[in-house]
Amino acid sequence: MRTDLCDRLGIEHPMVAFTPSEHVAAAVSRAGGLGVLGCVRFNDAAELDAVLDWMDRNTGDRPYGVDVVMPSTVPTEGSDVDLAAMVPQQHRDFVRRTLDRLGVPELPAGQETGDAVLGWLHSVARSHVDVALRHPVALIANALGSPPPDVIGRAHERGVQVAALAGKAEHARRHVEQGVDLVVAQGHEAGGHTGEIATMVLVPEIVDAVGDRAPVLAAGGIGSGRQIAAALALGASGAWMGSYWLATREYAQTTGGSAMQRALVAAGSDDTVRTRIYTGKPARLLKTRWTEAWSEPDAPEPLPMPLQNILVSEAHQRISAAEDPEVVSMPVGQVVGRMNAVRGVEELMGELLREADDTLARLGRLR
Amino acid sequence: MRTDLCDRLGIEHPMVAFTPSEHVAAAVSRAGGLGVLGCVRFNDAAELDAVLDWMDRNTGDRPYGVDVVMPSTVPTEGSDVDLAAMVPQQHRDFVRRTLDRLGVPELPAGQETGDAVLGWLHSVARSHVDVALRHPVALIANALGSPPPDVIGRAHERGVQVAALAGKAEHARRHVEQGVDLVVAQGHEAGGHTGEIATMVLVPEIVDAVGDRAPVLAAGGIGSGRQIAAALALGASGAWMGSYWLATREYAQTTGGSAMQRALVAAGSDDTVRTRIYTGKPARLLKTRWTEAWSEPDAPEPLPMPLQNILVSEAHQRISAAEDPEVVSMPVGQVVGRMNAVRGVEELMGELLREADDTLARLGRLR
Questions:
Q1: Rounded to the nearest 5 degrees, what angle is found at the Cα of A159, between the Cα atoms of A158 and A162?
Q2: Residue B73: its pLDDT value, please?
Q3: Fewer CB near the last or first residue (10 Å), C or N of chain B?
Q4: Which of chain B's residues have a Cβ under 8 Å away from the Cβ of A188?
């Protein structure tokens, strides 16, 4: 199963894995797909640099990529302290009250509260790009659409392809006009930031809009070989999968988080919710007692990006430390219903490829 | 392109068209698919009988089916008058105020307000089944899941297959255990009543749950041959399409409604909204000034089924008579983005089949 995407990225199989885990990303690249490391968790560029050094040694000389969260125009932004001052007390009170009610302990005494995730800030995302371009990356993907023109230009100078996520055909058109090489058509059922239009509808719409100028990757809901084949049927050149890798042994190597993995393995496809509580923009999360609390009558409206993530930053650390599968804050797509055990990346890749190939063979017999 | 569905229903192509228009249903059956006539609009069983007589003469001796809206258990229900008394005045006031604000005229003097749609009532849906079973129907589909056991039994005695819509795998399992022959896996992006889980995720999940016992039809978002091929890739035995036929000349023959068709043709895939305002249960509608009015701060919560439809029944008639494309009340799926002209059913069927076949050929070359 080869498409134009394979030649373009120098990969064996038309499968791209987005993941915050370097262990997952490297394993996917080694297995013949393209591992794409999410950078948003790196507040410190030097830390990202060290992880990419690790990637350079652990992908078996196969290509890999990075994913940043960068608006195409530079917004007004302040320091961490300025932004924190913009979070209303009412919101802080709700978060504190909710964590108490859900039995989430304070962080252990002496354990410092870490910084909020700042990767959403333009300046921080730009530092990620600077670091990535010093490594032999094959792809820079941007979760917020087209990166600024100078970033696209610098990537192209180094022979690095640029991908951008799109939830509407008009976004995809704009991305391609601004020089983006690959469009990721991400449907409503995807984890994390996601739009209204479902993958089944969105992918052919974006292929019709830009497919003659840029390969389209299908994202949202994909976690089986049948779905990869369906993505190809819709006109995509490959599949972009994110959530599916959260229930892997390699993911646990990076983040720990066994309660989170237990919660994912137990969840069905109807156990997600699309909400603004994670970042301020609509994102699909695992439905847990934490997300449900934000639907209660006493819950405030989530704040805009980046304030909401600053608001919930300490809560995320407390929740993560508490290791309670019923109180988890985790972006995941509806594909969570297919994630029923913690397994290894290589095994999952093999299974996906075999099923995709079997599906193409089955479809061939229908003609 | 033949699947087990073709043999089972005696049709040439694995495509089922759900439509309230007998002209569309007959044209689809004549073109080798299965036309399934929606019965919910027939308050009077004799009227349905006459329309099915017409179907018997106009399908070219090809099979056709009917679709009813019948809960599997008999709910408490009253007469039209009893039910009308349960509609709060506050809701009536909001509807009247909104129609005035949107410039929707009163019905012309002397024109009587028709009855509300009563097809949602169990007794009325049962009368539809009684009538249908006097005709040579090949299929009875139920939009609300498994019909009651005696209905399934009577259908089977006459060699009529029973289909049921499902928005979750657990529903599909229950349907099959209760004797349903075919499951329609209807994703979030579908028009009308619809659940949370998107077609890309739902179809393989339902195939895995019941596919060894009942063929599964994919529904929700389908309006191209690529999507039909994708549905087959996901494991479906065929496609169930509803919204797509609303922008046809045959549909206009049944209902008129040129403003409605103009609105559909102009709409994009992001111009729908899932709301309870049509029937009291979540249903996807075209987003217009009418649906937007129900999101305003002064709008009441929609009433439960069947009261909400009784509440908006006169409004629907006024809206329909007003012929304003900006004020339309119409269930339609996200596939509305692909409906860009009013065309004939035969032409659309030919195009869908050609593209599906081309897609299967293209996929065959990827191996």
A1: 105
A2: 67
A3: C
A4: 188-189, 198
- Contacting residues of B for A189, CB less than 8 Å apart: 188, 197-198, 200-201
What is the Cα–Cα distance from B117 to A290, expressed in whole angstroms?
A: 41
Structure tokens at A133: 């371009």
Counting one residue from A and one from B, how many pairs have CB atoms under 8 Å apart?
143
Q: What is the CATH number of the domain that holds B66?
A: 3.20.20.70
Domain containing A100 equals 80-116+256-322
Whether A187 is covered by a domain: the verdict is yes
B266: in domain: no
Q: Do both A10 and A51 map to the same domain? A: yes
Q: Quick check: A221 and B198 CB within 8 A?
A: yes
- On whether both A58 and A99 belong to a single domain, the answer is no
Contact A240, A217 (CB under 8 A): yes
* Partner residue opposite B196 with nearest CB, options A235, A270, A366: A270
Chain segment B96-126, per-residue pLDDT in tens = 999 999 999 998 877 766 666 666 677 888 9
Residue B1 pLDDT exceeds 80:
yes
* Cβ–Cβ under 8 Å, residues A22 and A51: yes
Same domain, A171 and A285: no
Asked if the model's pLDDT at residue A318 lies above 90, the reply is yes
In a domain, A333, yes or no: no
Checking ipTM against 0.90, whether it exceeds it is yes
Closest C-alpha among B334, B338, B331 to residue B309: B331
